[in-house]
Fold this protein.
Amino acid sequence: MQLEGIHHVSSITGDAAGNVDFYVRVLGMRMVKRTVNQDDPSVYHLFYADEAGSPGADMTFFEYPGARQGRAGAGMIHRVAFRVGSEDALDFWAQRLTDEGVESERDGASLRFADPEGLGLELLADESGDPPLSARSPEIPAEHALRGFAGARAYTPDPERSAALLGDTLGFQPEDEGGNAWESRGEQRGGFYAYDPAPAERGIPGAGTVHHIAWAAYDDDIEGWNERVSAAGGHTSGLVDRFWFRSVYFREPSGVLFEIATQGPGFTSDEPLEHLGETLVLPPAFEHLREQIEPNLTPLPNPRAASSAT
Ligand code: ZN
């Protein structure tokens, strides 16, 4: 069994409309699913990804309208990194973010910034050779488009605590001596998971913070992953059917909530590829709640219709 890097990263927003505008219009991702949080169907779960809704490019948000801004602390991911094709692409993004009033910081092959609610983001010039996972956007030249996840960075005071789980149980490869940097790499793709020293201030969950990170598994391996993590002493959720994928959740020793999710059946299992994300889609088990759910959700435009109209 091996994991194929990051499947998705799920975070919290207090402002669905602003979130769609930033991730779809500004960053040029495609909204590939508009649904509700299966653990709290009164709130949105929005998925942004590449054109095909692939695992490996899937940034998701739970909307808690008006949620207070949180702050990443120990045991929380504080930055999510995406790949771009070149350092020229970083020049393009630095200018585009400036034009949008977003401050960014260039450091060689890296461009760091934050989304409107303070979620740390980074673009890295990609040297992985992995197939790019990009979306089409009317405002982003194809050669500069985001290409999927590069990795994620978390805060911990003690990276050694997580080393056995990451290395022995999940098969991540160490990239340094101190257990601060790891890579999950499979046959198709890889992604890094790195630690930075935790700030003194306690973390506060809220808007602009990451809720969990999911790693991509082959469909037939998901029971095996549940057993392997359990056998290593991890307290897992057991298998959870998320309709578009099947998942196992557990906390890694630093405190970050991990999920292992299957690559299939995927987002085209209930919507045609051309129309992904245009309307509210509920998994069959939630469809009977539509009349209660839909009127209470923040109205959102279809971002593709908005862009093709201009
Ligand atoms: Zn998830």
